[in-house]
Design goal:
about 150 residues
Length: about 150
């Protein structure tokens, strides 16, 4: 299964991953149209945390034994059998926030306007997630889980 990994030593905290994540979720894919006309703008499914000198992108880690899937009261969070990623069916989510409480990475976000959660879906339908594609410093990489060790060494 492929996952997104961060090379924290090269993340510059530019927040482009958040911007392009929002753009991926917006109906017009043109940045000017999306950020000016698609209101309210979809919330990003990742976030950048900064604590100088360190900054890093936080998003769903697609855990093998995902506690959020086990804790979901309605079955809105499931493991996709084809991609092995943790997926959210937004229609089933009732906004109980149980998944937020059990996520060890703080990667699931509240969408208070729609009274449900949002989480990274690895940009389903794209070969490479938008945050990885547009990261200017190549701090985000999309690799098979067993390739992850080599990323840490770089």
């Amino acid at each position: 299964m492929k996952k997104i990994y961060i090379k924290d030593q090269v993340c510059i905290g530019c927040h482009f991953c958040e911007v392009y994540c929002q753009l991926q979720q917006a109906s017009p894919k043109d940045p000017l149209r999306a950020f000016k006309k698609d209101l309210p703008l979809p919330s990003p499914r990742c976030r950048v945390e900064e604590k100088n000198p360190l900054s890093l992108s936080i998003r769903c880690q697609q855990c093998e034994d995902a506690p959020c899937v086990q804790a979901c009261l309605t079955g809105a969070l499931t493991r996709d059998t084809e991609s092995s990623s943790v997926q959210l069916d937004e229609e089933k989510c009732i906004g109980c926030w149980t998944c937020l409480l059990v996520c060890p990475f703080g990667a699931i976000r509240q969408n208070r306007q729609e009274k449900r959660v949002t989480k990274c879906d690895l940009c389903q339908g794209r070969e490479i997630p938008a945050c990885v594609t547009y990261c200017p410093n190549e701090a985000l990489v999309y690799l098979e889980a067993d390739e992850q060790l080599s990323v840490r060494g770089n």
